[in-house]
Write a structure and sequence with these properties.
The chain has 16 helices and 10 strands. The protein is an alpha+beta fold. It has 3 domains: about 220 residues, Beta Polymerase, domain 2, CATH 3.30.460; about 70 residues, no CATH class; about 80 residues, Orthogonal Bundle (Arc Repressor Mutant, subunit A), CATH 1.10.10.10. Helix 1 packs across helix 2 and helix 6 runs antiparallel to helix 7. The chain is globular and about 70 Å long.
Length: about 425
């Protein structure tokens, strides 16, 4: 059944402002779920197409997609007083590149490819990088795409911009407030806004002044005290279930295949409840998504999200706030800690990180390794910068590689450093 625009908007209003449960409300919820999941097929096709183009891009990147969570959609409808059919980010794709200038280069690259094909169109580009968005400081470039009558949002960020955004996500969970929706104490929101401004200065090649650092540290202390005093403060140890990640790695298809996972994360304990593979077929995907959302309520601290990628390792980069959350003696990093954090990750390119990740996954440490040809032609076939990235890893002493004919393995003496890059 094809849903009318008025029916879709009625479903959005009814769920955003719930009244007494009736048969009609239950039918409208079905319509809501059907409309939301109708974005999955055009989104998956677009992500696959972008991924195929990116093989010729010549730079490092991570790409993943997601279908927006129901609680997020309903909060947005209430917050912005808009209709459901007006939302343009129900289906979203995210690409992370190394530097801010790479964002510009990639936008031009995508526009050039769109002009050659007729599969989807770029309706608008909104750039939040220079000034930051709203009062939050969020920075990214957004491309509004259209495919098969559905609006899709493509976010393109540099690694520093992504690092900031994931820090906000992580802090929001601990604080119990949706900071990116401007929920919470203005002091906490202002801290992240100024932190974003300083990051932008650093990424633009300008060092922050001593005064800026002192000001940010003072703001950080105030913000941290507010979070500690919040009665919704949650501090926990994370124990990400690595067995689930390893199992999913083994279920991945061939290179280039896009897999959609429904992920259930428990923010009370900081670990995954489950990952479930779903296809791109709308009815089965809708059934699984709604089943998990019904079983694991956001009010109880669970998050149910559908994420798609060709490599589970990519999800650890594009949605890193789900991984490695530790107990916080200090909730917010100092500026120097933050700079050290993203500089560590930026010392090597994406291709080098991909090679490190696959060597770790294959447990190639010390004497156990793989030949360069095996890496290039099989395990690391999708790494565009393979030769230069491998050379970088050798120069840094992170891998063992005597010559072009010797096996490649990870340097056990550099294990902690390698873990830091990943």
């Amino acid at each position: 059944m094809t849903l009318s625009k008025s029916r879709i908007d009625k479903a959005g209003r009814s769920l955003a402002h719930p009244a007494e449960l009736t048969m009609e409300i239950m039918e409208l919820e079905e319509d809501f779920d059907e409309y939301r999941i109708s974005h999955l097929e055009p989104l998956s096709l677009t992500t696959l197409e972008l991924q195929s183009w990116l093989h010729g891009y010549g730079g490092g990147y991570y790409i993943a997609q997601r279908v927006k969570r129901k609680p997020q959609i309903l909060r947005k409808l209430r917050r912005l007083s808009v209709r459901l059919t007006q939302l343009q980010d129900i289906g979203g794709c995210r690409i992370i590149v190394e530097k801010n200038e790479d964002v510009d280069r990639l936008i031009a690259f995508i526009k050039e490819n769109v002009s050659k094909f007729d599969s989807f169109s770029v309706k608008r580009v909104t750039d939040y990088r220079e000034k930051g968005r709203d009062e939050t400081g969020y920075r990214s470039a957004h491309l509004l795409l259209e495919r098969s009558g559905r609006s899709l949002e493509l976010q393109i960020r540099s690694r520093i911009q992504h690092y900031w955004a994931e820090s906000v996500e992580r802090t929001s969970v601990i604080y119990g407030k949706y900071l990116k929706e401007q929920e919470g104490d203005p002091i906490v929101i202002e801290y992240f806004q100024h932190l974003s401004d300083v990051f932008y200065e650093i990424e633009s090649g300008r060092d922050p002044s001593v005064q800026s650092k002192v000001k940010l540290d003072k703001m950080r202390e105030k913000a941290q005290n507010i979070i500690y005093e919040s009665d919704r403060n949650r501090i926990f140890d994370s124990s990400v279930n690595e067995d689930i990640v390893r199992t999913l790695t083994n279920t991945q298809g061939s290179e280039g295949d896009l897999i959609n996972w429904i992920m259930v994360f428990n923010w009370n304990s900081g670990d995954f409840v489950t990952w479930d593979i779903v296809g791109r077929e709308a009815e089965s995907a809708k059934a699984k998504y709604t089943q998990y959302e019904s079983q694991f309520s956001s009010d109880d601290g669970f998050e149910v999200v559908m994420i798609g990628s060709s490599d589970i390792a990519t999800v650890r980069q594009t949605h890193s706030h789900y991984f490695g959350i530790e107990k916080f003696d200090t909730i917010l990093e100092s500026l120097d800690q933050s700079i050290a954090g993203f500089k560590t990750r930026m010392d090597i390119d994406v291709g080098a990180r991909q090679i490190l990740a696959l060597l770790v996954r294959k447990k190639y440490w010390g004497r156990k390794g793989a030949t360069i040809d095996t890496l290039r032609n099989h395990f690391a076939k999708g790494v565009n910068t393979f030769d230069s990235s491998l050379s970088t890893l050798k120069d840094m002493g992170l891998i063992n590689m005597a010559d072009a004919h010797s096996p490649v393995s990870l340097n056990l003496k550099k294990k902690s450093e390698i873990d830091g890059y990943l």
